[in-house]
């Protein structure tokens, strides 16, 4: 990142797209209605956004269907689609400062994280799926010589994608990149709290050469635009990242409409299990702090449950608390800031209510617990650590989605696994130990989609991501994500 950038000056020069992008053009909502896009950085109004509803979804789906049926995208040779998606990755990289600034203003994350984390990951994601297009082969089944059985993967058609506000552009890329790579048309509904980068990327997609109607973005509210997309009879698949509660609604919408394929990446309550024999307790403490305070804890796999072996509890918690104090909320437009804002007033109140619930249920507030920087007009909560937490407590069971850590003590590996698995969620788990045998046994016993050992980094775009239980259905990232956006067809030829 260029340290000389004056981000506030750059913000004053921004041109913000505020219309829906349908059929290759920016258009007002059919109703003419808008909603306020307010920055959590300081509470100021950024822009009024077109409030899409069922009519706009109908228009976007019709555009997507027409584009799919006439083959303007899926009919192109794989190499041609490869070039377009790689060009889109290049344009995202070229415009990364603008996209990072939009992300920070829109949802309050530190500009350094938006630029060096999110935008880089988006470029990697789009380029990776672009380059995968012409490297995926179909199959020939083993048969007698009198027959030939071809097994092919074909695009589904129209894919609806509904994404959250915590990583607005990255979560969108995890959906649209593989969906487009597979040859589908896409209708993207960004979260109403953070629609700005999706609208800008739609413009970049058109510039890269994605034909009109193939990539559409309809901002709006979940109960209107989101529900309309989930219930639409001409949408072949719906990919969602967000809360488990809303994920269940999309399953319901599918069953009540056309049984569209639904893939879900939902909530998490990641157990971060630290044994006394961890190879580096300082690294484990940093992993614990980063795991819950990064992005203000607004992360689906945030390490919100810290399980610590009893014999190191006091010393280890002191290390984590010392690191937490360095995560003080600051101006998200300052490149040195590590902890930014909550996304809005609603989420801020939700997190503060959980903190009060933790105190009421008998957990010990060891650090933080307050809203701060209220004089800015923004929404900030200081790093918060609870000790003496029981896994039955609300703060240990429900996804808080804020910078709140619950510390639970265990004595044996068996107890740690029991506590870790005692959750409706199964997205991720972290494990710190120097005992390779113990690590393998526990990793096998944990009912989660990802287990990281002696690190918080679960891998890049090349590995699948998703969860067990009520954390979701299907996987994002890796070549496995393409399975969600294709149908498998068998063609049997009788050669006798």
Describe what is shown at a glance:
By secondary structure, the chain is α/β, with parallel strands linked by helices. It has helices at residues 7-12, 54-69, 78-94, 96-107, 111-132, 168-181, 196-208, 222-231, 244-256, 281-293, 313-324, 345-360, 394-397, 413-421, 436-445; strands at 20-22, 25-27, 34-38, 45-50, 139-141, 147-155, 158-162, 185-189, 215-217, 237-241, 261-265, 271-274, 305-309, 364-367, 371-372, 380-381, 384-387, 404-410, 425-426, 428-432, 450-453, 468-469, 472-473, 486-494. Helix 3 runs antiparallel to helix 5, helix 4 packs across helix 5 and helix 4 (96-107) runs antiparallel to helix 7 (196-208).
Provide an overview of this structure.
The protein folds into two domains: 7-266 and 472-490, Aldehyde Dehydrogenase, Chain A, domain 1; 271-460, Aldehyde Dehydrogenase, Chain A, domain 2. The strands form seven sheets. A seven-stranded mixed β-sheet has the order 14-17-18-13-12-20-21, sandwiched between helices. Strands 9-8-7-10-11-23 form a six-stranded mixed β-sheet, with helices on both faces. Strands 5-6-24 form a three-stranded antiparallel β-sheet, with no helix packed on it. It is an alpha/beta fold. Strand 8 (185-189), helix 7 and strand 9 (215-217) form a beta-alpha-beta unit. Helix content is 38%, strand content 21%.
CATH level 1 class label of the largest domain: Alpha Beta
Helical percentage: 25-40%
| Beta-strand fraction estimate | 15-25%
Total of domains: 2
The whole-number mean of residue pLDDT values reads: 97
Q: Structural class, judged by helices and strands?
A: alpha/beta
**Main beta-sheet strand count, sense and barrel state:** 7 strands, mixed
State the distance separating the first and last CA atoms.
65 Å
Output the strand order for the largest sheet: 14-17-18-13-12-20-21
How many strands?
A: 24
